[in-house]
Amino acid sequence: MAAAALKQNSEEQVYGRQAEGGRVYLVGAGLGEAEFLTVRAQELLTQAEVVVYDALVDAQLLQLVPQTCLKFNVGKRGGQPSMPQAEINRLLVEQCQQGKVVIRLKSGDPLIFGRVAAEIAALRSANCAFALVPGISSALAAPLLAGIPLTDPVLSRCFAVLSAHDPADLNWTALAAIETLVVLMGGHTLPEIVQQLQQHSRSPQTPIAVIQWAGRPQQRLWLGTLATIVAQTAGEALSPCVMVIGQVVELQPYLKSLEFAAQTGDDRRRMHLSPKAMPLTGKTILVTRSHNSRQEAESSTLPHLLQHHGAKVLEMPALEIAQPSSWHALDEAIDDLHHFHWLILTSTNGIDYFFGRLAARGKDARALAGIKIAVVGEKTAQRLHQYHLQPDFIPPDFVADALISHFPEPETLPHSRILFPRVETGGREVLVAEFTQRGAAVVEVAAYQSRCPAAFAIEALEALQQGTVDVVTFASSKTVKCFCQLLEAAVGERWLPLLADVSVASIGPQTSKTCTELLGRVDVEAATYTLEGLGEAIVNWVRDRE
Q1: Is 1 a residue of the active site?
Q2: pTM
Q3: Active site includes 54?
């Protein structure tokens, strides 16, 4: 079984029955984004069969799990709906006993206010095998990312980490005597924390830092004193945050002025703590994409570009790419390749499936000797290079319809036979009609099919319903159509109002046309019809609005 096959880390202590099947890993997710995961945590997520995760775990991490993985959001965020702990315990035991690799994903480190005692007790009682995988706690990482040292030879020879979820239960006499305090879960109780410390002889001038969303693109920092911080943060929803109280907070401006972080783009982004430091800081962007069943998910070019400029990115598959319903037509064309003059490839999917089928028929690129190849766009040309071939023609505009208007040697078209491997339905009818009108014999064959996924991604749906999405991106007309279809299936006829405050970004004119038809508008359109061009258009659009 999968759990038995999963390689155990040599440093990992496994408790409970050495099951032939299931095992539960209690994993620390760190600060949320994948770059703060441990190598072991990332390895486990890529092999997970079940993930049970808390609300503060960033949805980005769920992109690491296999597509077949079951995902359970159990909440566990103060003041918001959560699955009862007894039900979480039951779920872990149940999935483990079914022989599955179960990842219990917790924010930070699982044993630092991770509330795992009940889960461990339930697993022990059921004799389920489990292991603990550490994570980076926000108690340590948040001060570092804010440029605040927790220790100093003079100002802070020790520090204490506390949960302020129930301040009345804490020993404030002892805590007030400690040089540096790191406070977790105190966003809703800041006034009481300040009051207790001052009542127990802590000076009103004691420095305090409030670090919100540590390690995320939307990270924010408030610097003040016990006397001023409540007024400074009035009206702000501080959760989730980490607070640092003590004289070491005074070192933050000094260390920041020395450029405390390494000079890489990502580190610089994390150390510039003003919410306006990056053009997309504070923006949540939903990137719709296709998923190819032959390969891994498509390139993450756009998400990485947006994250580099400070955005929080949610990704959702809005289109599934798979083999055609029948290979018959493509097989016949491959067997008859010597009768074609041109091969037209308008997408990376078309290239992958065509050459995959070519190999399945026992042929390789040599079968294309004497045939000229036309592609659309640099990305398609780059994919063709992976098969050790150079295109004979790339139109200057990165759209398929530009093939006909710029086609070389147009006088030869009446004598040309063109092979066009394309999507099974909904492809470029205008392109085929234009070539046919000019006398070419175009043979269209289904090389792949595109279809809507089974359901709208739950993380994306929750973000839309909570009103936290600022921009949604579309890279094809079909992703727009499937997005709308899936959203209507998920919430009913009144799906469109969910997008009232969401800006719509399109990769080019054809996609924009579909956006206008189905969504009523397009707010951003790429000048260059590529994923990079779409990312640049969003950055420029946001800058122009400020």
Answers
A1: no
A2: 0.53
A3: yes
